[in-house]
Design brief:
By secondary structure, the chain is an alpha+beta fold. A nine-stranded mixed β-sheet has the order 1-2-3-9-4-8-7-6-5. α3 crosses α5. The two termini are 21 Å apart. It folds into two domains: 3-61, no CATH class; 64-209, Aminopeptidase. The chain contains seven helices and nine strands. It holds the Pfam family Acetyltransf_1. Keywords: Acyltransferase, Transferase. InterPro entries: Acyl_CoA_acyltransferase, Bact_Acetyltransf, GNAT_dom.
Length: 219
């Protein structure tokens, strides 16, 4: 059953829904139900077989996990931004979504990616979840839910890459998560984002889950 997503629908300006499917995936039944939606997110734990051109694989979501220990330490030069949301942070949020399904699916051509990531960084700023380098060369967002933390956005400015800032941002997020009571940290990314996957694996994270995400787009 496709569930309507009111928030996404209001943000994008057309009907959006989502569905979780399994091996009992019925493509024709889905296509009939999807006629009232413009966009539907399809989540599956395994690859789906389909023939319709309205359905497209847009992401293989890879979630990495690491159990935090008492020795977690971070970069002391990171800060929590104050005042108004700096537009340099908005640009970093866009950088962090370079492999986002909302960016790689070229059928979404009404600034869906920009709308979503601009709102994402705004909410992270309001919730004081952002840690940034002093000159906004990079930033990371970390949220806590119970005894688990999650990195949402992580980006380094193109001019500052290759200096080890990525690892320092991850370590800073670990330290902040540990400080707020988290025992472990999750990092979702795209399997196609090889630099990010290598970064997380090099800092002790292991792949804990893989999920296939498809977009249905009504032509």
């Amino acid at each position: 059953m496709i569930h309507p997503l009111n928030f996404d629908s209001l943000l994008f300006g057309y009907p959006v829904g989502k569905i979780n499917v399994d091996q009992s995936w019925d493509e024709q039944g889905f296509l009939e139900e999807a006629k009232t939606f413009q966009l539907v997110y399809i989540f599956s734990q395994s690859e789906l077989k389909y023939s319709s051109e309205t359905v497209r694989l847009v992401d293989i979501k890879a979630t990495f996990f690491k159990r935090l220990d008492q020795s977690a330490d971070g970069c002391s030069s990171l800060e929590r931004p104050n005042g108004e949301l700096d537009q340099r942070l908005v640009k970093l949020a866009f950088e962090s979504g370079a492999y986002s399904r909302f960016k790689v699916d070229e059928r979404l051509d009404n600034e869906e990616f920009e709308k979503l990531y601009r709102l994402w960084i705004q909410k992270a700023w309001e919730n004081r979840e952002i840690l940034s380098l002093p000159e906004k060369e990079g930033m990371v967002t970390v949220s806590i839910d119970g005894d688990s933390g999650k990195i949402g956005l992580l980006a380094v400015h193109p001019d500052s890459r290759g200096k080890g800032w990525g690892k320092k941002l991850v370590k800073a997020a670990e330290m902040q998560a540990k400080r707020e009571g988290a025992q472990g940290l999750y990092i979702p990314t795209q399997l196609d984002n090889l630099p990010a996957c290598h970064l997380y694996q090099s800092t002790g994270y292991t792949l804990s889950q893989k999920e296939y995400i498809y977009h249905y787009w009504r032509n």
